[in-house]
Amino acid sequence: MEHIGALQAVVTADDFDREPTAAELDAIELESPLILAEVDLLDAQIMTLDRIPSEVDARRIRRARNRVLAARRALVNRAAVVEVGA
């Protein structure tokens, strides 16, 4: 039985093997408060999957939602300031 292998180098390997650019790292850093707030909200929701949410759980989820909204608002306002300032 003959081995069937690729005769050419993988064309798209360069896109996946490269390091993030400085602009991509800056964008991640800019969005990190929102990402962390969304992770906290997800954690709060996961904790209530297997039980009936108590008042404390409902308060935790509500506060996490408010943090997500505040982080989104801050991100949008920061982007708007950059666009107006540019």
Can you put this structure into words, describing what you see?
With 86 residues, this protein is mainly α. The protein is built from three helices and no strands. Helix 2 runs antiparallel to helix 3. The longest helix has 31 residues, at 55-85. The mean pLDDT is 85.
Low-pLDDT stretches: none
Number of strands: 0
- What coarse outline follows from CA principal-axis ratios? flat
* Helix vs. strand class: mainly alpha
Strand content: under 5%
Mean pLDDT: 85
Produce the secondary structure layout:
Elements lengths: L12 H5 L4 H26 L7 H31 L1
Helix pairs in contact: 2-3
Give a short synopsis of this structure.
The protein is mainly alpha-helical. The chain has helices at 13-17, 22-47, 55-85.
Index terms:
0% strand, 86 residues, mainly alpha, single chain, 3 helices
